[in-house]
TrEMBL record:
The keyword Signal applies. Residues 1-24 form the signal peptide. It comes from the Bacteria. PROSITE patterns: PROKAR_LIPOPROTEIN (PS51257). Keywords: Signal. It comes from Kaistella yananensis. This is MlpB protein.
Length: 127
């Protein structure tokens, strides 16, 4: 009797695991691999840490614009700290809004740099 019960439990466990695996395989999203110099989606950047995170970040609305942060602390800092919302374009040296900036990976550690336009991005990376 114990053997039959163990067999049934083993079958159920295998069935449940196989269902979960196929479901996970079907719902996986392809993630693009970005490298230094690539423009990245704004919603995958923690604008407090100025880092490409590789996945969608937490949305923070402020003054009608959308910013992104990686954690609850970032959600608190974005409305309070201008440097979480603004950055200097390295070409024009103009203060620009991160919500509307072109964002690119600046190094192998996935740090990012912000540009006010595509021409400045191209000039920075000599493209």
């Amino acid at each position: 009797m114990k053997n039959i019960l163990l067999g049934i439990l083993a079958f159920i466990a295998v069935f449940l695991v196989s269902c979960n695996n196929s479901k996970a395989e079907n719902t996986q999203i392809a993630v693009a691999k970005f490298t230094t110099g690539d423009i990245v989606p704004n919603d995958q950047v923690c604008m407090v840490n100025n880092a490409y995170m590789g996945k969608k970040q937490l949305e923070v609305k402020h003054d009608g614009k959308t910013y992104y942060g990686c954690c609850e602390n970032c959600k608190l800092r974005i409305p309070q700290e201008e440097n979480a919302r603004m950055a200097y374009d390295p070409i024009s040296h103009q203060l620009i809004d991160k919500a509307t900036a072109i964002i690119a990976i600046s190094d192998k550690n996935d740090n990012v740099v912000y540009f006010e336009n595509k021409a400045n991005y191209e000039a920075f990376f000599n493209k």
